[in-house]
Structures are given as structure tokens and as C-alpha cells.
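Exercise (ungraded).
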Amino acid sequence: MHATDPVIEAVDRVYVSESRRVLATLIRLLGDFDAAEEAMSDAFRAALEQWPREGVPSNPRAWLVSTGRFKAIDALRRQKKFDQLDEASAAERLGVTDAHAWADEASVEDDRLRLIFTCCHPALAPDAQVALTLREVCGLATEEIARAFLTPAPTLAQRIVRAKSKIKVAKIPYEVPGRADLPGRLDAVLRVIYLVFNEGYAASAGATVTRHDLSSEAIRLGRLLVDLTAEPEAQGLLALMLLHESRRNARMSATGDLILLDEQDRSRWDRALVTEGAALVEQALASRRFGPYTIQAAIAAVHAEAQSAAATDWNEIVGLYDVLRRMDASPVIELNRAVAVAMRDGPAAGLDTIDAILARGELKEYRLAHAARADLLRRLGRKDEARAAYERALTLTQQEPERRFLQRRIGEL
Amino acid sequence: MKYLCLVYLEAAKMRAVPDAECLACGDGFRSRGVLVAAEALQPVDTATTVRVRNGQVSVTDGPFAETKEQLAGFYLIEARDLNEAIQHAAKIPPAREGSVEVRPVRQLDA
């Protein structure tokens, strides 16, 4: 069989578009992650053999789920764990008695949600939640995830194995949480998605600022969650990611240097993403059930709609930070608010707040606090203090483009 | 499926929750068919650790590991899955003073 065979290409296409859905449904039918993964590869192997002879089935996904399920039953029989007595109960568990239950669109989409909520279950360690989501929901290879998080592949593989084993042994159910638990559980899912996005957008270490694949996976998950739940905070998070993403091409120079918001060429912002993000913010705000992601997205939308840094509605931004601060009294939010205050009322006003935060001992090791302070001192013409603050920020960052940016600023003083 | 809910408390908080409340919790579990067994424990300074090495029994004072929180009691419960077990564990009164470790029970190989 030649690689350019149209049927082989069809199998490839179905793999890209359907494999995650097939896996999510097989996990429900088989009640086991590993068995489902094996059943899915068996099903695709069968497709490669049968589709060239018999043609591509009219509903490839249903064909793959059904084939995977029968392959799993075969495997159980071969393992002799499937004696006469158990056959009825196992058949029931595998959905044989209700062969069409899995085929309809609604339960397949529910399976995708079940998979996300299970991978982000709070009983799993936070780093395992991220790894498992990327592996099972996004289908990234263990090596890819390991590379993206600068973690040795065996460590990451072990994390995934341990998490899957806990799901099985402690019996973490494969279900979408009920209404009462949904808000708390949704927060965990949104946190994982945003973490994946940020790791792709502003990598915490390494030579390049962006690792695009992770960001696009996070946006894909965000879209999925919005489509499946229509929860305002899911809309807020998707909006936030889209608005950040819209600036991707403008935030780095051709030589890989960081360009701050006020110096970016705004004509290079992706207007389609801005429009989509801003519309989602409106929808989420209108629900009156929004949370911190929606407010952060609203702030990003104010930036996106301004012609220049000077023309930005800083008063609106300070007001949004006030709302955000009431939801979450974190020092990082206070720092960002101080920067907005400095833009509205002048650098001295922002500097007082930042000094107060640092005096409390909070954010002492946070590079962006020192970088922001340095910037305000520079604008006030207090060069020696600015240099010291830039140098402090420099000792705290591992990221190459950020280091170059800070060194450039010190050089310009 | 059975889960063992191990209740841990700091020494100073061993009696922080009134017994009546813990009894009521156990009764509630029993009436809903959740409870398999439950007991409160005497403080760790009454504990004795037993080991057998090379056929010799060794006996030492105190618990196996020194930790800030000590085992104060347990509830062995029946639950459909971990989510249900977590819901039950959250109703154990000392959960608000210390912590409750939820462990699935392992079936011994026959």
C-alpha cells in the first residue's frame, strides 16, 4: 500500500479529527484508560486493513468505536479473564446490550467533557492534571509534553502512569460533575487550560518566548469547553487567551526580542481574534455570573481596542482592576493595578503602591515587580535606582528574551 | 467499593470535636447504609509498635512515625466511587479541625 493512497489519507484525516472523541467514548465503554488506548490503536489498525478493501464507512467514528469495543472484548477473552459467568455482566458493561447508546452526537460530546473533568480531578496532583490533559484530551505524545515543560520524559511518563493508576484504583468516576460541584470543578479545568496556554505563550524558562503548540491546544480546549458548557467563565478564559494570542506576532522582534505592549506595532495584532475575543467578553459580562478570567479578558479587550498606549482608557482599566481585586486580593493583581495607575496618574503614583507591596515582603522574588518598579524609576529620571531595580529583576529571570530586554534597558540608562 | 477514612488531628485538638457530634455522624452513615465500621482512638502516647524481625518480636513505645497530626480515629465506609467517598468524608466532623485521608480498600489476592 502506497502512502499517498487516498484511503490511507482518509484514515490519517479521521485520526486527526476523531481519535480524541473515539478515545473518550472507549474509556467510558471500557472503564479503563489503558484498555481504551489499546482498543483505539487496534481499531485504527483494522481501519488501515479494511477500509482500502471495503471503502471508508459512512460514519467512521461509530465504526472505530464499535471496532475498538469488539477488539477489547476479544482481548479480554484472550486473557481468560472473561469466563462464561462474567460474560453477561461484562457484555453489559461494554454496552453490547445497547449498541447505539454511544453513537449519538450528544453522548460523544459528553464523553469529551467527562474526559476533561476526570483528567483535571482535584484528587490528582496539579502537575499530573496538566500532563494527563495534554496526553489524553489533546493527544500529545509524552515526549512532546516533556519537551514543552522541560521535564525528563521518564519523569513525565511516570506522572501519567501514576495518575491513571489512581483513577482506576481509587475509582475516580468518569463523569461531568453535577450542578452543585460544577463551579469548583470547572475552576480546576480552567486553571489547567490557562496554565497550558501560558506555558506556550510565555514559557517560564528557555530560549524562545513562545511554544505555539501548547497555546493552540489550550485555545482548542477552551473552545471545546465553551461549546459544551456555555459557562461564562469558560467564555471569559477563551476570550482572554484569544486576546493574548492576537498579539503574538507583535510581541517579538524578527531577532526574537521581547516588545512590550506600549511599543508594539498594533497593526500586526490579529483583528479577527480581537473581534472574537471582545464578543465573548461581552457575552460573559452580560451573564452577570462572570469571574476573574472574564475581568482579565475585559482588561485585555480595552488594550485591544486602543489605537496606541497613550490613547488607552487607563481609567477603565484601573476600574476593572478594582473589580478584580475584590474577587481575588492577590499581590500580583495589585502590582498590575499599580502599573495602570502609573499610566493614568503618572509614574510617582504607581511607584508608591509598588514600594508598599515590596515593603510587605510580598513579590520580593517576583521578577516582574522589580522590572515594573525599574521602569517607573526610569521614567522619573532616577537612573541609579532604576539600574539597581533592573539588575535585581535580571537575577530573577531564567528566560533569554527577557534577560536581553532587561540588559537593553540597563544599557539605555 | 470500600474506602477507609482516616481522621488525623493535632495532639491539642484530639478532643476539639464533641463526641456526641462524631456519634451522630456515625449514626447518620449507618442509617444510610454507608457505614461498615468506625472507631475513635486513644491518643498516640498510649500506642505501642510491634515488629517481627528474624522471628524475634520487638516492642517499642509510641507510633511508627512522628508527625504533627496523629491518627485519631477511622470510618470504614461503602461508596460508589471516589466522588461519593469525598462527599461522605467531608461530613466527618473532625475534617474541619484536622484532616481526613480517604484510602481505597484493597482486596487481598485469593
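Further reading is listed at the end of the chapter. For now, observe: Chain B has one domain: 2-104. Helices of chain B lie at 19-31, 82-89.
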